[in-house]
Specification:
mainly alpha; single chain
Length: 169
């Protein structure tokens, strides 16, 4: 038995790794192991198990759920309108544009605004010395876009020709 291999499962993993390395230019070379961009202490893991997700995560889940619900409602309305006006694409575009402009997302946008104000502080995001702004540890953006007509039209175009054919009969 090789050193460090304790169980049948570990031996099988080792065998599969060795098979995968056959013919590889990496075989026999030491490999650098990278740490994950985040880690949890034992204290944080226990705290998470007992208290649930951190406070700054809860509004994100609400935003995601409310956005999904709004999008589903809009998809249904889009399909109904597309069905009614499928022979008149210009009329559909005009009607959908008007519908998009009428949509109000005040509850979601209030949550997004609060998220954009407080998330970097609550999540203890590091500052970017070049810009003076906050940044995620793993890159990307933490800011959420407020929902409005532009978002609706990006998600559900006013042009029937740009929509996937399975969206309407």
């Amino acid at each position: 038995m090789r050193r460090g291999v304790d169980s049948e499962g570990e031996r099988e993993k080792g065998r599969l790794i060795q098979e995968g390395l056959q013919g590889s230019r990496l075989k026999g070379r030491p490999q650098e192991i990278h740490r994950a961009p985040f880690s949890f202490s034992v204290e944080e893991a226990v705290k998470g198990a007992v208290q649930g997700p951190p406070r700054y995560i809860r509004p994100l889940k609400q935003i995601e759920d409310l956005t999904d619900q709004a999008l589903e409602r809009l998809r249904l309305r889009w399909r109904q309108l597309a069905q009614e006006l499928k022979e008149r694409p210009e009329a559909f575009a005009e009607a959908w544009l008007a519908a998009a402009r009428r949509e109000r997302f005040s509850r979601i946008n209030r949550l997004i605004d609060q998220h954009n104000r407080y998330y970097p502080i609550e999540a203890d995001l590091p500052m970017d010395p070049r810009t003076g702004g906050y940044r995620l540890r793993c890159g990307g953006t933490w800011k959420k876009e407020l929902l409005g007509a532009a978002w609706v039209l990006r998600e559900l175009p006013a042009d029937l020709g740009k929509a996937p054919k399975d969206w309407y009969p």
